[in-house]
Write a structure and sequence with these properties.
Blueprint: E1 7-10, H1 13-26, E2 29-35, H2 40-55, E3 60-65, H3 70-75, E4 83-88, E5 91-97, H4 101-118
Parallel strand pairs: 1-3, 2-3
Antiparallel strand pairs: 2-4, 4-5
Length: about 120
């Protein structure tokens, strides 16, 4: 499964937990897109996320459908779609709520810069 530079969709809680564990071990930045199939803005922002994933193979991009994984969405207290959560070693370091293209790109860039500085 070539996961270089793509958004990984988690369809089971187990898949989600595996990604989380992988991100924790590698100490990589993980960006989680909490999305829903019926959400228009989510569809609009999806290609932007895919483009970021292509450009930044060092960041783990994961997509979680809140209807498919209700438990995960409630564990992370997701109230609006899309919500982008930035995790490092299992801790939330940032959140972007809504299909805010610029804010999403800037937040990713900011955290990639931080990780490059500390690496």
């Amino acid at each position: 499964m070539g996961e270089e530079g793509q958004v990984i969709s988690c369809h089971t809680v187990q898949a989600w937990e595996e990604q989380l564990a992988k991100a924790n071990e590698s100490k990589q930045l993980m960006v989680v897109d909490f999305t829903a199939s019926w959400c228009g803005p989510c569809r609009l922002v999806a290609p932007i996320l895919a483009e970021l994933a292509r450009k930044l193979p060092q960041v783990i991009f994961v997509k979680v459908d809140v209807d498919e994984l209700k438990q995960v969405a409630s564990d992370w207290a997701i109230e609006a779609m899309p919500t982008f959560m930035f995790l490092r070693e299992g801790k939330i370091v940032d959140t972007v709520v809504g299909a805010k293209k610029e804010e999403l790109q800037q937040t990713v860039a900011k955290h990639v810069a931080i990780s490059t500085a500390t690496a």
